[in-house]
Amino acid sequence: MGENKLLSSMKKFRFKDHSLGMAFLILVVIATILGWPNFLKIRNLTNILRQISYTGIIGLGMTLVIISGGIDLSVGSMTAFVGGIAIYFLNLFGPESIWGIVLTFLFALVLGSLCGALNGLLVAKFKMAPFIVTLGTMSIFRSLIQYFSNAGTILSENMDYGKLGSGVLLGLPIPVWCFFIVGILLHIILNHTSFGRYLCATGSNEQVAKYSAINIIIVKWLPYIITGFTVGMTAVMWSSRLNCINPSDGAGYEMDAIAAVVIGGTLMSGGKGSVIGTMMGAVMLGIINNMLVMGGVSAFLQQAVKGFVIIVAVLLQYNNGNK
Amino acid sequence: MDEPKILLSLEGIVKEFSSVRVLDRVSFNIREGEIMGLIGENGAGKSTLMKILSGIYQKTEGTIRMDGQLTNIPDYITAKRLGIGIVPQEFNLINYLTVFENIFLGNEIHKGLLLDKSKMREQAKAQLEILKMPLDVNKYISELSVAEKQMVEIAKAMILDTRVLIFDEPTTTLTPVEVRTLFSLMRKLKEKKVTMLFVSHKLQEVMNICDRVTVLRDGKLVSVDEVANLDANILAKKMVGRDFSQVFPPKKDRRAEEYVLEVENLSSGNMVKDVSFSLHRGEILGFAGLVGSGRTETMEAVMGLRKLESGEIRIKGKPVRIRNAKDAVSHGLGYISEDRQGKGIVMNYDIIKNISLISLKDKYMKGFLIDKKAETAASDHYIDEFNIVAASAKSELRFFSGGNQQKVYLARWMDTDPEILILDEPTRGIDINAKREIYEFIHRLSEARISCIIISSEMEEIIGMCNRAYVMREGKIASCLNEDQITEENIVFNATGIKKGVEKDG
């Protein structure tokens, strides 16, 4: 009886439905074999997680934006902008002020959300193309922070700020905790709240959503605000890790975030996606990078490999969709 | 008169789509230089037959002779070479190209490797002059009106030496004035000995323009007659072939005195001009008219989906302000759009998520989270009630038939507990059994004292279902017909403003 059940559930198991999980497992096995024994060392694994956590957190918000049918190219320069302004804000407090750190964290989250709200306003309310809007704000954020800093590094004067980004809690770095917590939160929002339901419906067909009494302006606006929030979080994590912000920081973050989303199986055309998938996508990117580094592949080639992986992921999406 | 020459001869044409027979041994002749009408209900096989003639579909059996010669039409290009052109229902024009570029699309004239634009421009101009079309060849398609786009399609079909020109439901999107222009153009083409096939389901037009008419029903040939020997009633009976009473449940008047919805002097854009109407509790109210007469736009304005310029809406006697669909829902209004796939269902959502889409926040929340158990239970109830056929409640809607999609769409609106349900072309593109189920369902609604508005371009639907009917023409209410006045003649007259038989040429 029990055996039969197992058999029938094995028969029902379709590789197509679990392709991401399978790819993840295969990648881990390959990395384990090729990288034996260094890959499986705790230190290496937490390192991978830390490395991917910065763009990974942004990728979580980006997932919602892409499901809504949009895209956010401004996240990289927004990270530098929010991080830089946050450090100016932090420096208003004394060098030993713990409150300053707490308030700066909150300040960065609010400022990031506001920046995202600006993108969302233009996209949702004024019905502009997301690609164009965020291409514009990408340039604006970068330019502003370079102007404010005179293109120089913005240093934190707080003695304890650095502990936030480099801190470790129960064996995991704090940015990794942020990545997991935000991931689980957004997963619940996407799958178990009315907003998540409306989001997928709107991304799938905006007209249907409008005719179904859904307020599509708010539904399309919120993902950008949430992405801004995740950018604020990354900005704090990154700047506190280095105890400073360079106005050129965060360049190419949009690329990594979008890559994680696409590898995670979210449709670029919108309407369907998975936050858990994005988390796996981000980790997979991290593992591939780790393998390349350990294998001594030139750093210049690593971006090429990333680009290749994205193209393959989208190709698989298309083939699945056509069946 | 001499025996007319037969240009095209169809013998035993059969077409099957995955073993479903949509054309069953259809045979008839088309004479040189005549205008042959081809009429039938939706799904009678008119379009399929025309697509076989123009090489888009391949016949399963049968033979086609042209000038007495056995002819094969394996593709669109061959059809064109044989001189068979088609003016399709949905235009195949490229918006970002000019008129002459579209006319020569696929038949470009070259000068070496490059396009000879000046020559094409000249020839297109000449062609339009011959057809007496007042069009600028350098205009972009996107700047043209629907009627002008149709002219371009005709010119495009005529640029090769076309002997047979097929019009597939050409008048659906035209205003009455534009229809008259089209007809006078067709008469000019006739003088030039062009043979024409005119596909339509509008009796009046066929009687007006055609020499002979072929009737198709359920894929079979019913008759070929000279128009001179026919009247509209005989033609209608041939086309429908059954009594309406078999499809529609017996009519009952369940109207209460009180009005649930009163609309006064509603205006919105140029499609809704000063529209007033009222709806009794428990009434089944019809909205008839031509496509594009403003019926859909009126209801969308009532639902808050279009901006109102003026007008008052009263629900149960109280004036209300409806700014969006959400306000409309909260006042007990529901609207099933004619565009099921574009504005109705979410194709990649399953039954459960589709049904709860509007009522989600009111019915299925536990705090911030969705109560998925309650949601599933509700959808099981509707699957049962509406007899929705699906592998499981978790199947995505894109795999469903039109009828089942429509039932899910209905279930979504029923879950909002509406008091007034507006159904826009509720049976478009669904099979006869699902149609009957939907008609019965509308009757059950009226029994439950829910008021229904049915917008329909199928006259028999208005005649067979409604207690009262408004007819719209060019954005205005042309008249309100009481039950004993709802006849085909009254609807046609009010919808077109043209009395049968007395239509003048443009």
From TrEMBL, chain A:
It is a multi-pass membrane protein. InterPro entries: ABC_transp_permease (IPR001851). PANTHER family: ABC TRANSPORTER PERMEASE PROTEIN YPHD-RELATED-RELATED, RIBOSE IMPORT PERMEASE PROTEIN RBSC. GO terms for molecular function: transmembrane transporter activity. It comes from Sphaerochaeta halotolerans. This is ABC transporter permease. One of its GO terms (cellular component) is plasma membrane. It is found in: Cell membrane. The chain crosses the membrane at residues 20-40, 52-71, 98-122, 168-190, 211-238, 275-294. Keywords: Cell membrane, Membrane, Transmembrane, Transmembrane helix.
From TrEMBL, chain B:
Gene3D superfamilies: P-loop containing nucleotide triphosphate hydrolases. GO terms for cellular component: plasma membrane. It is found in: Cell membrane. PROSITE patterns: ABC_TRANSPORTER_2 (PS50893). It is a peripheral membrane protein. Signal peptide: none annotated. The keyword Repeat applies. The keyword Translocase applies. Keywords: ATP-binding, Cell membrane, Membrane, Nucleotide-binding, Repeat, Sugar transport, Translocase, Transport. Residues 8-243, 254-499 form the ABC transporter domain. GO terms for molecular function: ATP binding; ATP hydrolysis activity. It comes from the Bacteria. This is Sugar ABC transporter ATP-binding protein.
